[in-house]
Amino acid sequence: MTARSTPSGDVASPPVAAAGRGGAFGRALSYEWVALRSLRTPWVLCGSAVAAQVLVDLAVGRDGTSGLRQFASGMVGVTLIGFVLLAAFGVNALGGEYRHRTITRIVLTLGDRRGILLAKATLTGAVTASVAAVMVLVNALSVPILGKSSLPVIRVVALGGAGVLYTVLCALVGLALAGVTRNSALSIAVVILWPVLLENLMVATTRFGRNLAPFGAAAAQAQAGDGGGPQWVLMLPLAVLTTVLLTAAGILFSRRDV
Questions:
Q1: What is the pLDDT of residues 133-188, one digit of tens each?
Q2: Cβ count near 36 (within 10 Å)
Q3: Distance in angstroms (rounded) separating the CA atoms of residues 85 and 48
Q4: Full-model pTM
Q5: Which of 52, 16, 61 shows the shortest CA–CA distance to 37?
Q6: What is the rounded CA–CA span in Å between residue 50 and residue 56?
Q7: In the 3-class helix/strand/coil scheme, how is 88-103 assigned residue by residue?
């Protein structure tokens, strides 16, 4: 099998699919993990997300507020900067294959297209969940260190869990958009402009409720520092959107030429 080009221009060693273990999905997951470890761009995005969280925690105000409000204000690192970088991670997981024309080799090597997409979604979700959890932990540790305040553990876990779930769903939306459009630049533009522009326009010009705006409603749950914690039902619009886009990506990936 030929070598695989990385998005940054370097050439990675070709991943080898494990034979026999775990069926088609297991082989696809093994292939994707070896490929991911050999690429530079995904890890730059993950490292940048954690570094951005540190900068956010240093920048946000820590005086005159409770520890929980300090933590909630620091969650903007997860829901804003982390959202952009980890959504780009999701786009790159599939869009990079189309950009560098390696998707055909993967399909010919592994055969099962559904297994390939499922493996990419699984690995994308696992990596982004881990990175988001580190960002939440950094934010939590910054409160007693920088703000000299204590934190209610249960509320922090709830808010942090909402932030992790939000970033995972955003990354999967990015992955799905890349599968639908087969264009990395377009997918990143859509996944960023959707919450920033489209949702706000819909809320401002129509009767579309803010609680139904997928990205906005989900992101707000990670910053609910004054209320009773996340209202998990408000995560449903983004979860439904993610499911619809992944289903569309799966259908298109299975039926059209790569």
A1: 999 999 999 999 988 888 889 989 999 999 999 999 999 999 999 999 999 999 99
A2: 19
A3: 8
A4: 0.86
A5: 16
A6: 10
A7: HHHHHHHHHHHHCCCH
